[in-house]
Amino acid sequence: MPRSAVAIYLPSDEFLAVSAELAEAGYEAIGISSVDEFEALLEARPDVGLAILDGESDFDATIEMYSLLHDGERNVASLMVVSSTALDRLSLAGRARINGEFVTRPYSAASLRWRVEAMLIRAETMLIRAEALDDGARGGILGGELSVAPSLVARRGRIVVVFNPKGGVGKTTIAINTSAVLQMRKNQRVLLVDCDTVTGHVVASLGMAEIPTVADVWRADLGTNVNHSLADIASAHSSGVAVLTMSRSPLHTEVLEPKRVAQAISAARDAYDWVIVDMHPDYGPLNQGIFALADHILVPVTPEVPTIRAAVQFREVSVELQIRDRLALVVNRSNSGVSSSDVEKVVGFAAVGKVRSAGMLFVKAANGGHSAVEDYPKARVVGDIEALADRLIALRDDPDHARGSFGGFTRPVRDLLGRLTSQATGRPRLPVQMR
Ligand SMILES: Nc1ncnc2c1ncn2[C@@H]1O[C@H](COP(=O)(O)OP(=O)(O)OP(=O)(O)O)[C@@H](O)[C@H]1O
Ligand SMILES: [Mg+2]
């Protein structure tokens, strides 16, 4: 059931402003004025996907409402509106066990709408992911059995997102070549999806600029009973990888509704062993929906401070988006600049691979519309990408043994880390995760 209704417990002037914004975004805003009313609403309307609560006026009522959101099987997201001093008091008093999200007054109704949209999309995508895992379990070898080993659930296709909020760090290069290795050397069925609707360059790099886009096909589907899946739309590359691009233009992409895209990507797990998604560097609703689906989010980082800073920022954002456990570092151009183990320590999450600098090799392969795996099969950098692919397969097949860092730490780096971390975050001495 789409969860597009929002329950709101706010003073009436704020309710009016917020509900008008939400209506514009297509969400139904339902005002409530008491705990009883709130309880009745949650009973009657399972489509309530989010509650906006006033954390200041009547704190006891708010606490009761919050616990109703998590009553029994129910798990509805919440946004708590508070003043910044109240937020300080809450956390100081240890009462921030309320682990919903906070909005501090004064706020603009438009900014609240943006957060609501992102949270609802995320909540729905989490639901799609949970349902997909459930279906996988039911369809597994054990058939109708209730308890299913996680490894069986994991037999469905894996979704691997390649993302770093900074541009030009090797996202597309790693997405293309990891896909090609998995397909050509590991006998896996791979769908490579370019979800970068702004500067996407997967299809240009693979000499496939003319293939139909998802936006084209879905637009043509409008008003018909046909609903093409991603597998229907994908085109085969010379490497064997099935390739898709969302759109050729950043304009007129309304048909690429984030929830629909997330659902389509999730459904593609049935047809492929791996769905590799190249993303535009932003935190918009489309990307948030796809993050929520991902089994792994590969974060290519080149060993320079601005790129490391972007990865540290992403790690912080990932906590709020509840995807922190899926981040996996790929140190790109690993033989230049700061050492790989230092990068790993500073960004604060484990690496799954490192890819050396390869001069013009990737550019030359792309000029011919190929992956480097096809044109330079013996190149050492292709060996690096193969090691990364092996690691992804190991994480799927034997997650208990495959976890952990890919390399030992070779020298004392605390001072360097302190310096790099404060440079990377603009803050003094962020605690660095030491393993
Ligand atoms: N390990 C490497 N060795 C040599 N060249 C590389 C390496 N990684 C990436 N490059 C080159 O660096 C450039 C940027 O890489 P790429 O296009 O993959 O980055 P991106 O993160 O996808 O960028 P954008 O954010 O613009 O989409 C490309 O010309 C690519 O060929
Ligand atoms: Mg790119």
Look at the structure and give the CATH class of the largest domain.
Answer: Alpha Beta
- According to CATH, the fold-level topology of the largest domain is Rossmann fold
Annotation, overall tally of beta strands:
13
Poorly predicted tracts of residues: 94-99, 138-154, 405-435
Mean pLDDT: 83
Terminal CA distance: 43 Å
Which small-molecule species are bound to the chains here? adenosine-5'-triphosphate, magnesium ion
Calculate Rg over CA atoms.
23 Å
Net shape: globular
**Whole-number count of domains:** 2
Helix content: 40-55%
How can the largest sheet be summarized? 8 strands, mixed
- How many helices does DSSP assign? 19
Secondary-structure content class = alpha/beta
Question: How would you name the CATH homologous superfamily of the largest domain?
Answer: P-loop containing nucleotide triphosphate hydrolases
Roughly what fraction of the amino acids lie in strands? 15-25%
Strand order of the largest sheet: 8-9-7-10-6-11-12-13
CATH architecture assignment name of the largest domain: 3-Layer(aba) Sandwich
Overview features:
Rossmann fold, 2 domains, alpha/beta, 435 residues, 5-stranded parallel sheet, 13 strands, binds magnesium ion, binds adenosine-5'-triphosphate, 19 helices
Record the SSE blueprint.
Layout lengths: L4 E5 L2 H13 L3 E4 L3 H10 L3 E7 L4 H11 L7 E7 H9 L8 E5 L3 H30 L11 H4 L4 E5 L8 H15 L4 E5 L7 H4 L8 H8 L8 H4 L1 E2 L5 E4 L12 H10 L6 E5 L6 H9 L2 E6 L3 H16 L6 E6 L7 H8 L3 E5 L5 H7 L4 H4 L4 H18 L1 H4 L11 H12 L10
Parallel strand pairs: 1-2, 1-3, 3-4, 4-5, 6-10, 6-11, 7-9, 7-10, 11-12, 12-13
Antiparallel strand pairs: 8-9
Bound molecules: adenosine-5'-triphosphate and magnesium ion.
The site of adenosine-5'-triphosphate has 16 residues, from helix 7 and helix 15.
